[in-house]
C-alpha cells in the first residue's frame, strides 16, 4: 500500500502542467440566502461513517505518548559502519526511525544480510526502516545485484527499466531492505557531469518515462525514492564536496528538470530526497534547507509522502561556515519541510560533532523556541511513523 494514499491530502496541482488552482467566484444574490429545503430522501439518508484506519489510529496513539525529544529522534535515519549488528541496533534502540546501509554493512551473502536486517529491529510495532542506495551500475551496494543500471538503461525502452527495478526490488525485499534510495530522477545530456552515468534519461521526457517505470517496477517490494530533487543535472558540480548552483528559472525548471520528478510522484513514489543544490532564482538556500522547494514539491507536484534529506554530513564536508553546525543544519531542514534526516556517520560520530542526544535536544529546543512549529514536527513524525507501521503490519 502506497504511503501517499494513506496520509491526508495536501494541495495538489497537476504535475506536468503546473497550473494554479484558483478559487471559484462567489455567486451573486442575497448576502444571507435562504437555505434550500432538504428533500425527504436526502434527510432520511444517514451520513456514512468513515471506515476505521488502524494505521492512523496506531500512529495517533504512539505520538500521544512521545516527548519532543522522542519525536525528534523519530526523524533520524543513521549509519554505523560494519557487519556487526550491535552498533546498528544500539542506534535503533535510541528511538530513531531508520538505518542506512552502505557498502561496509554488506556481508558476503543475501542470507547473511537478511540476518543482519532482522537483528537490528528493537520495536515489534514499528519497524526501523532499512534504507540503501541501490541504483545499480555506478552506485551499487549489493554485489549480487545482477539487474542493469541507469547507464545501460538510458538507450533502452522504459520496459527494460521496469524489469530491472522489479528485479532490484525483489532482491531488496529478500534482504529485508525497506527503502531504496535508488531512482535517480535527475536529467542531463552532459557526459562531463559527475552524475551522467546515473541518470535514466538524457532528455526530460525520456527520463520521466524511465523514472515512472522504475517506480512501477519496484512496486511494493521496496519503497521507491526519487533523487535528487529539484534536479542535479542542471547544477554542475558534486554536492558531496560543494553546493552546486543551477542557472534555471522556475519556469525553465518546470519545463524540463521537473518532469522526471513529476512522473515519479504520479507513479506512486513514497519518498523524495532533496539535494544540497541551489537554484538562486527560486531560493538562495540549498533545496534540502529550502521552504520554497518543499512547498513546490507538495503544492505543484502533489507529493504526499516522506521527504528525506540527502546525507546532511555532505553540507559539513563542503567547508562553508554557514553549514558547519550539524544541529543548525538539522533545525533548518525540519523547519523547511524535511521529514527524515539522513546521516552517513562514521564509527565515532563525535568526529563531526554529532550524537543522537545532541541532535534530538537541539531539535526539541528549536520547537520550544518557536523556530520549528510543533505542527511541522508532528506532521513529519506522522508521515515517518505511518511508513514504519505500514512496513510492520
Task: Give the SSE order as H and E letters.
Answer: HHHEHEHEHHEHEHHEHEHHEHH
Instruction: Please give the radius of gyration in angstroms.
Output: 22 Å
The geometry reads as globular
From the helix content, strand content and strand pairing, which structural class follows?
Answer: alpha/beta
Largest β sheet strand count, sense and barrel closure? 8 strands, parallel
Q: Tally the helices.
A: 15
Query: Which residue ranges are poorly predicted, with pLDDT under 50 across at least 5 consecutive positions?
Result: 1-43
What's the helical proportion of residues?
Answer: 25-40%
Total number of beta strands: 8
Q: Give the N-to-C terminal Cα separation.
A: 11 Å
Q: What is the strand arrangement across the widest sheet?
A: 7-6-5-4-3-2-1-8
**Mean pLDDT score:** 89
Strand content: 5-15%
Task: Please characterize this protein's 3D structure.
- There is one protein chain.
- The chain has helices spanning 40-44, 54-64, 68-73, 85-92, 110-119, 150-153, 158-175, 204-218, 250-255, 258-267, 291-300, 313-317, 326-336, 356-368, 374-390; strands spanning 76-78, 98-101, 129-132, 179-184, 223-229, 271-274, 306-309, 341-343.
- Helix 5 (110-119) links the parallel strand 2 and strand 3.
- Helices cover 38% and strands 9% of the residues.
- An eight-stranded parallel sheet has the order 7-6-5-4-3-2-1-8.
- By secondary structure, the protein is of the alpha/beta class.
- Helix 7 (158-175) runs parallel beside helix 8 (204-218).
- It is globular.
- The protein has 15 helices and eight strands.
